[in-house]
C-alpha cells in the first residue's frame, strides 16, 4: 500500500526534488515581483477595455469578436493568476500549504490552456468563413456560447487534474524537478496536449493560406470576378494575418514565462516576456474592426 504525504510541507517536496527554495528576499526578487504586479495590472486593464468594447459596440457582435472577447477573458484570467503568483512566490513559496500551491499552479495552467484552445477555435471559425467566402460566420449565438463553455471546461479540466489525483504526493519518485508536487507524467501530458492543439491550429491556418493563394491565382487568371469578391478575399486574409500574428506569436513566450516563474526558476524568469503578450493581443482587436 502506498504511503501518501498529504501532511508534509511544500519544502519537503522541493527538497525531495532537489529544488532550491529561497528563504529571504533578494533585490532581484523584489524587482521581479514589482514588475510582475505592474504588468498584471496592465493586462487586467487592457483586457477589460477589450471586453467592454465588444459588448458596447454593435459592429463587434459577430462570432469572431465573441471568440476574441473570450480570448481577452482568458488573458484577464491570466492576469489574475499572475497577480496571485506574485503574492505567493519567492520566499513565500515555502510558507504555502499544499492546497494553495496547487491553486497557484492550476490558475496558471488553466489560463494558458484557455488561451491556446481559444486560438484554435478562432482558427476553425476563420477557416469556415474563408471556405464560404464570408467575412463573418453564420454561427448562431447559442453555438458560440456552447463553444466558449467547452473551451473553459477543457481548460479547467486540464488545470484541475493535478489537484484531484494526478500528482506525486503518493509517489515521490514520480515528482518532477520543475514542479515538485506535480507528476512528471502529468506535465508531459499537459505539454503534449497544448502542443497538439497548437500544431492543429497551425495546420488550419496553413490550409487557409494555401486555399486563399489558389483562389487569388484563379482570380488573376480570370477577369470576370466581381471586385467585391476580391475585396472579401483580401479582407479575410488581413483578418487571418492579424489574428495569427497577434495571437499565436504571443502564446509561446506566455507559456515560457508562466512555467519559468511559477516553478521557481527565478534565475531564468521570463514573466514579463510572457505576460506582455496579452496587451499586444488586446491592441489587435481594434485593428480587426475594419475587417
Automatic annotation (TrEMBL):
Any one Gene Ontology cellular component term annotated for this protein: endosome
UniProt key word tRNA-binding: no
Keywords: Cell membrane, Disulfide bond, Endosome, G-protein coupled receptor, Glycoprotein, Membrane, Receptor, Transducer, Transmembrane, Transmembrane helix
Compartmental location: Cell membrane; Cell surface; Endosome
Coiled coil residues, start to end: none
Domain G-protein coupled receptors family 1 profile: 46-246
One of the record's GO molecular function terms: lysophosphatidic acid receptor activity
Topology of this chain in the membrane: Multi-pass membrane protein
Main location per the UniProt record: membrane
Presence of keyword Transcription regulation: no
Pfam families in alphabetical order: 7tm_1
Spans through the membrane: 30-57, 64-87, 107-124, 144-166, 186-212, 233-256
Family named by the database record: Belongs to the G-protein coupled receptor 1 family.
Name of this chain's protein: G-protein coupled receptors family 1 profile domain-containing protein
Organism this protein belongs to: Pavo cristatus (Indian peafowl)
Phylogenetic classification of the source organism: Eukaryota, Metazoa, Chordata, Craniata, Vertebrata
Amino acid at each position: 500500500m502506498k504511503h501518501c504525504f498529504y501532511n508534509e510541507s511544500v519544502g519537503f517536496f522541493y527538497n525531495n526534488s532537489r529544488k532550491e527554495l529561497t528563504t529571504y528576499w533578494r533585490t532581484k526578487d523584489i524587482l521581479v515581483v514589482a514588475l510582475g504586479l505592474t504588468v498584471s495590472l496592465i493586462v487586467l486593464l487592457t483586457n477589460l477595455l477589450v471586453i467592454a468594447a465588444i459588448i458596447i459596440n454593435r459592429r463587434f457582435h459577430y462570432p469572431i469578436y465573441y471568440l476574441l472577447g473570450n480570448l481577452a477573458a482568458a488573458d484577464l484570467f491570466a492576469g489574475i493568476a499572475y497577480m496571485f503568483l506574485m503574492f505567493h512566490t519567492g520566499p513565500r513559496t515555502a510558507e504555502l500549504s499544499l492546497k494553495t500551491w496547487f491553486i497557484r499552479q492550476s490558475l496558471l495552467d488553466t489560463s494558458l490552456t484557455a488561451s491556446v484552445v481559444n486560438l484554435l477555435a478562432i482558427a476553425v471559425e476563420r477557416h469556415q468563413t474563408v471556405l464560404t467566402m464570408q467575412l463573418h460566420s453564420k454561427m448562431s449565438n447559442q453555438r458560440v456560447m456552447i463553444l466558449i463553455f467547452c473551451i473553459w471546461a477543457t481548460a479547467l479540466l486540464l488545470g484541475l487534474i493535478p489537484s484531484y489525483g494526478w500528482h506525486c504526493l503518493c509517489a515521490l519518485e514520480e515528482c518532477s524537478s520543475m514542479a515538485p508536487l506535480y507528476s512528471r507524467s502529468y506535465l508531459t501530458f499537459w505539454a503534449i496536449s497544448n502542443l497538439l492543439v497548437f500544431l492543429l491550429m497551425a495546420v488550419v491556418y496553413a490550409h487557409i493560406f494555401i486555399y486563399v493563394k489558389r483562389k487569388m491565382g484563379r482570380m488573376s487568371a480570370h477577369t470576370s470576378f466581381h471586385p467585391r469578391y476580391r475585396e472579401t478575399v483580401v479582407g479575410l486574409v488581413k483578418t487571418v494575418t492579424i489574428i495569427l500574428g497577434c495571437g499565436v506569436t504571443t502564446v509561446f513566450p506566455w507559456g515560457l514565462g508562466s512555467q519559468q516563474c511559477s516553478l521557481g526558476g527565478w534565475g531564468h524568469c521570463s514573466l514579463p516576456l510572457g505576460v506582455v503578450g496579452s496587451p499586444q493581443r488586446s491592441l489587435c482587436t481594434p485593428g480587426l474592426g475594419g475587417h
